Amino acid sequence: MTEPAHVDVLIVGAGLSGIGAAHHIQAAFPGRHYAILEARTALGGTWDLFRYPGVRSDSDMQTLGYRFRPWRQATAIADGPAILSYLRETAAEAGIDRHIRYGHRVVRARWCGETARWTVEAEHEGELVRFTASFLYLCGGYYHYDAGYDPGFAGTERFRGQILHPQHWPAEFDYTGKRVVVIGSGATAVTLVPAMTDRAAHVTMLQRSPTYIVAMPSEDALATGLRRLLGDRLAYPVVRWKNIVASTLIYQLSRRRPAMVRAAIRGMVLRRLPPGYDVDTHFRPRYQPWDQRLCLAADGDLFAAIRRGRASVVTDEIEEFTETGLALRSGEELPADVVVTATGLRLLALGGIELSVDGRDVELPKTMAYKGMMLSGVPNLAFTIGYTNASWTLKADLVGEYVVRLLRYLDKHGYDSCVPVNDDPDVTERPLLDFDAGYVRRSVDQFPRAGSREPWRLGMSYVHDLLNLRYGRVDDGELRFSRRAEPA
């Protein structure tokens, strides 16, 4: 094991959150040393990992892009390669890429109160490499990057075709002329189905139950016009706030007037599908809008593929795989040459990193999340979890700004560490992610808990968090600050 290298801030993850975090730290503290540890061999996180056809964002790039770096392309709903290029350019322009250490998978981190430092161990080329840091900033998101969710379908071993999961898409996979069945109805399936109609003989989306799917233009005409009139730098915040307000209003309306929103979405779907299409079987979800995330069909591409006869939707349950396709619970058989299991992702709390504080192991489900970004009883650590009802980056940017404020507060008052402490017996526990999606329900018990009141409640309001994280008091009575004892 190598001797530890010390940095002021150690960032884990070189994806959307990690590159943004590095920008905030570097801009605020040009004299401080930081490093980014990335388990994979390239930056980009989700946008480098997923390579399936048509992979794209389901958020507009005016809000998925960073506040500090305008998105300049005309396309507002961008594909994966465009987003990856944006991340690479952001890192290169600021020199952030020079601070990334690739192939370093962090496995454990130990806090020592006497030294006020983290000792972090990472696997690199078969060896353990150690780093020490004054502050640990976890930006690896909450997805399990090694494998997606496998429901364990019966009979897969007898299927003569090919079974793929979108998380591990083979390079140059050729599906020309093949009958493709995509299992799932989430964002990945809604993206894959129209994208694969370019070469497949036919693509079928097989869903157990429908999802809310809304059509949205891939280009923002207002953004394009304002960029011509005002230029990128001035137009960007205007368009960004327009999109924030619009998405917030839609979310609030969905929660308060769900019947109205259901009717509006149903009307939109009816207008885009052929006359007589069985909308209520295939596009009428059992749950209310925004109980789960709305799926986005850029330019209505899924509906267009159905109208052209290139794609279809089957709502049924899988009994088992057969040699030539899928036997359904209804008794029908769905023929297939390729089956894509877009059955969801797996969550992994804080990247699966083992944490300990002064020799005591940290059990995440027994901790409580402070402001949705720190852990009770765990000093000098922050993490990023984005919004489920808006762009991830909106929250990631606010967390980065808050970490800067927190570090400045420590400097100003001569403190070495800070730790959130919940000593209010009236604060009751709640799930950290109050979201009804299957991937959340399967794993939320492995995550820290949220509380019944602020600052222990993970909010989903950007405006509220903006006021709280950007302008609220750092010393709010829930953080405890301390100085390292000087040696005699």
Automatic annotation (TrEMBL):
Pfam families: FMO-like (PF00743), NAD_binding_8 (PF13450). Keywords: FAD, Flavoprotein, Monooxygenase, NADP, Oxidoreductase. This is Cation diffusion facilitator CzcD-associated flavoprotein CzcO. GO terms for molecular function: flavin adenine dinucleotide binding; N,N-dimethylaniline monooxygenase activity; NADP binding. Transmembrane segments: none annotated. Its cofactor is FAD. The keyword S-adenosyl-L-methionine does not apply. The keyword Nucleus does not apply. Belongs to the FAD-binding monooxygenase family. It comes from the Bacteria. InterPro entries: FAD-binding_MO (IPR051820), FAD/NAD-bd_sf (IPR036188), Flavin_mOase-like (IPR020946). PANTHER family: MONOOXYGENASE, PUTATIVE (AFU_ORTHOLOGUE AFUA_8G02570)-RELATED (PTHR43872:SF1).
